[in-house]
Specification:
By secondary structure, the chain is an alpha+beta fold. The protein contains 4 helices and 9 strands; from the N terminus they run βββββββαβααβα. Helix content is 21%, strand content 27%.
Length: 187
């Protein structure tokens, strides 16, 4: 599949070869050689056979900055679905802990009863509990979504690993509405 990365990339081929298809033609990089791909270059990598190579991306590769396009009908191309899987793995490795704010009274009531805590908009939000990976955004989140709710608030710090062990799936996504309150815009 074609991609237009937002990073410069150096490619060093150790074994085999890779074909780099771009608007200027095809560049074949053989074992023992390398190539430079400037950021923004629309390129498609094609491996005619087994190949071992080292990509060096500046800044580092991430699913967000690789600019990969879908290629319908190409069985070996990375699809949007496979890129989303890669994105989720990247987030979970980058953010091993997430944060959720709750009214202290609700949290303590759930703890005292031994029942599972669910936020009040859980069902309305599609059986989903919102959290953030960036604790610096919590005050902004509280002011945006909860400033009309009086009471003392607590911050729950949850590890992705601990949630997975409890059977809770963690999905990283863009900001979303909470109940009837529209999503926050972090610019």
């Amino acid at each position: 599949a074609y991609q237009s990365p937002k990073f410069d990339e150096y490619v060093l081929v150790i074994e085999g070869s890779v074909e780099l298809h771009h608007a200027g033609g095809v560049t074949v990089v053989e074992a023992g050689h390398g190539a430079f791909l400037p950021k923004g270059l629309r390129v498609k990598w094609v491996w005619p056979g087994p190949c071992s190579y080292v990509p060096i991306c500046l800044p580092a590769f991430s699913p967000e900055n690789c600019g990969r396009e879908d290629e319908p009908g190409a069985p070996l191309a990375k699809t949007s679905e496979s890129m989303e899987t890669l994105r989720q793995l990247h987030y979970k490795a980058t953010y091993p802990v997430i944060y959720h704010v709750a009214l202290k009274e609700r949290w303590e009531a759930a703890e005292a009863s031994g029942e599972t805590y669910y936020p009040p908009t859980f069902a309305q939000d599609g059986n989903f509990t919102h959290a953030t990976a960036d604790p610096h955004k919590l005050i902004e989140v509280l002011n945006h979504f909860y400033k009309r709710e009086p009471g003392e608030w607590i911050c729950l710090r949850m590890s992705i690993e601990g949630l997975a062990a409890a059977g809770v799936q963690t999905v990283f996504e863009a900001t979303a509405p909470v109940g009837e309150t529209p999503a926050i815009d972090f610019g």
